Amino acid sequence: MLRVPAWLSGRHAGLRAGLLLALLLVLASVGRPAQAQEAPLVAEDPAVEARMMGIARELRCLVCQNETIAESHADLAVDLREQIREQLKAGQSPQQIRNYMVARYGEFVLYRPPFSMKTLLLWLGPFVLLLLGFGVLWRIVRRRPESQDAEPALDPRARQRARELLGVSEDHPPS
After folding, report:
1. Is CATH 1.10.8.640 correct for 46-109?
2. pLDDT digits (tens, 9 = 90+) for 35-48
């Protein structure tokens, strides 16, 4: 049978066991090497690096899709940044590099795509949906009755029948 040590039993047993567990977790994490990602390569020339980051801020990460290539740590983003560096060193202009990326990956790679017939829905879609929402709301409000608290009017025959059931005459209205 398993015996609990004397120092773990008693009045503050739960606190001691929790502290022991916390100490074991700290010791286990200290002994392990850090699991960090490799830092992105930096160009030898800071001017090239600055130009590369400027271009990378305009291009979408195709893996993350919610970040620019400059912000992303995905392997593809690291490779694309390296491609941009190489093209800058080869003398390509930022526009030529953007054109290359669009030719290779489509307009989706642009973080802010230009206004064109292909991207018309992308740019105008939210406003169209907003207008449709306001139109539906306006129709709902317009069709709603003035006051939902008002009692429906009774025709004279229904009013007479109600008076008979309640035992009230026309001369003496209910109080």
Report:
1. yes
2. 434 345 555 778 88
